[in-house]
Design a protein that fits this description.
With 232 residues, this protein is mainly α. The chain contains 11 helices and 2 strands; from the N terminus they run αααββαααααααα.
């Protein structure tokens, strides 16, 4: 288990106590890092992982809040460990069907705070790509999806997207094999999706997400030989 996973477990155990309720604000980053005996960088990575899973919510300029008290880390890790072709195929197929619909709804309902969080995510994604930090790229891409799902305001969709995060993480494994042109397209897709969300253009947002998923499917086939289901 990595240090980030250990800290994520520690934060989850903390928020599951009676001290914290849904909507409660977590202590400051400085206090949390001292309490958990870790660096701020490791703490931030753990918080981002929990945010992508729907446990925490980062609000720009406000802090970190409890979004769910569900013990979903174990479930998340169990799903992620499943490597059978049938399991991988099912998760990718479900993601390809659901994500474009979630993106379209997000375009209708997205708020300024969500756009700000997505812009911060784009900045972090750009830096991770420039630094070739594959794990961070996957984490930020997953966080992008989580924020987009959050902006729908539909908790059921948020939970469904959270359960499909491992499918996205699986697809991101191919990032390490992408050439520079492919990495540029990967990043550009996220920028285009954000721009469509900013314009509240549901049709364009859905179109861009479908295009991005299709492109990543082709990259996955090219670099790993795994054939992603065609849901068009």
């Amino acid at each position: 288990m990595t240090k980030v996973d250990q800290i994520a477990r520690g934060i989850l155990a903390m928020v599951q106590t009676d001290v914290f309720q849904i909507g409660s604000r977590l202590p400051s980053e400085r206090k949390l890092s001292l309490q958990l005996g870790t660096s701020r960088n490791t703490l931030r990575s753990a918080i981002k992982k929990l945010e992508a899973m729907g446990i925490l919510e980062l609000r720009g300029g406000s802090g970190c809040y409890v979004q769910s008290k569900d013990d979903s880390i174990e479930k998340w890790q169990e799903i992620r460990k499943s490597t059978s072709d049938e399991s991988i195929h099912s998760r990718l197929e479900a993601s390809s069907l659901l994500e474009p619909l979630v993106a379209a709804l997000a375009a209708d309902r997205i708020q300024p705070v969500d756009i700000e969080d997505l812009e911060n995510c784009i900045v972090a994604l750009s830096k991770a790509i420039m630094d070739s930090r594959i794990e961070v790229i996957a984490l930020e891409a997953t966080r992008f999806r989580a924020i987009m799902a959050r902006s729908t305001g539909n908790r059921v969709l948020m939970l469904m997207m959270r359960q499909l995060d491992p499918a996205h993480a699986l697809a991101c494994q191919v990032i390490g094999k992408l050439d520079e042109k492919e990495k540029e397209r990967f990043f550009a897709d996220h920028v285009e999706i954000l721009n469509a969300l900013k314009q509240h253009d549901a049709g364009r947002t859905r179109e861009m997400v479908v295009a991005h998923l299709g492109y990543m499917g082709r990259c996955l086939l090219k670099h790993t030989g795994f054939d992603v289901p065609d849901t068009r």
